[in-house]
Amino acid sequence: MSFRIPSLARRLAGAFALAAFAAGAAVAAYPEHPVRLVVPFAPGGGTDLIARTLGIGMSQALGQPVIVDNKPGAGTIIGTDAVAKSPADGYTLVVASFAHAVNPSLMPKLPYATGKAFAPVMLIGRGPNVLVVRADSPFKSVKDILEAARARPDKLTYASQGNGTSAHLAGEMFDNLAKVKMVHVPYKGAGPALTDVLGGQVDMMFATASAVSALVESGRLRALAVTSPQPSAAFKGVPPVAESVPGYAVESWYGLYAPAGTPPDIVARLNAAAKKAAQSPEFRQKIEQEGLAVSAGSPQELDAYVRGEEVRWRKVVKENNVKAE
User: Fold this and answer.
1) What are 216-262's pLDDT values in tens digits?
2) Of 111, 124, 137, 262, whose CA is between 20 and 30 Å from 215?
3) Could you tell me if residue 29 is left (phi over 0), alpha (psi between -120 and 50 degrees) or otherwise beta?
4) Does 30 score more than 50 pLDDT?
């Protein structure tokens, strides 16, 4: 017996060492094939634009293609759940946004535990939403909308890219603070929502800045206000909603998450690649002019920021009795 135990111990030690070596080699070789960025919205919206712009720079930094995979539906839950259930190997990420922080309070029975299912990678950036109407809309200011909404309760409509998104809850907060009642019209993504705003089927949208900046610049949409407490440099001359509705403030954000359990070395590699992409002149030129302030910090920054947003919006969801459907 005394001879077998050391022999067994040596064999076990060798096996563990081999496994550790193999794991280390796998991390060192990462990435060996394309990385997938899951966007839980339809193509054409703000999150899609952020992902595609960031993916170009990340691809250069990683030396592998970074492919955007749109998986819209259920207020971002379908795409987010797909990433939560993906292998924790660094090859599948989700481009999270406002809904990621809201869904835990909006959907009590999520198919994943938000705080445990993901490893934070990087907060890409933050920016205001923009209250927009079609170019020939009779509404030329927030005051016009307030007057019409008070005169005709439940008649004015506002679009969003889905229940629980920033465009939706921006409208809920507007209703709450202005003491009006408008009708929310959800879509499967910002693209189709904006199409109906442009076509006159919906009156307005509290859209993400990245989704509407080009449409505002071209004159197809009219920007009435930004949702940030202060004016945005990207929308000169456009006042904050808070000038007409005191206390109003809504912010959009974009962040990268990997599945929980992704090796720290791979998370660090992804963070470095995303940071390099987000800090590039090409990314900043395209994104900052659309109202997004680049963050590009540590995984811990994303984690702390989103936990704070969860607390803030849980209160609004409860007070406004916001439902997923």
Assistant:
1) 999 999 999 999 989 998 899 999 999 999 999 998 899 999 999 99
2) 124
3) alpha
4) yes
The region that residue 174 occupies, defined by phi over 0 for left and psi between -120 and 50 for alpha, beta otherwise, is: alpha
Query: CA 90, CA 19: separation in Å to the nearest integer?
Result: 19
Amino acid identity, residue 252? S
Closest CA to 138 of 152, 123, 117: 152
Question: 206: Cβ–Cβ under 8 A, 6 or more apart, which residues?
Answer: 129, 130, 131, 158, 160, 166, 167, 170, 171, 174, 227, 250
pLDDT tens digit string along 66-76?
999 999 988 88
Rounded distance, CA 134 to CA 192, Å? 14
The SS3 assignment for 239 reads coil
> Scanning the structure block, which residue is given the tokens 């004159």?
219
The secondary element (H helix, E strand) that includes residue 96 is strand 92-97
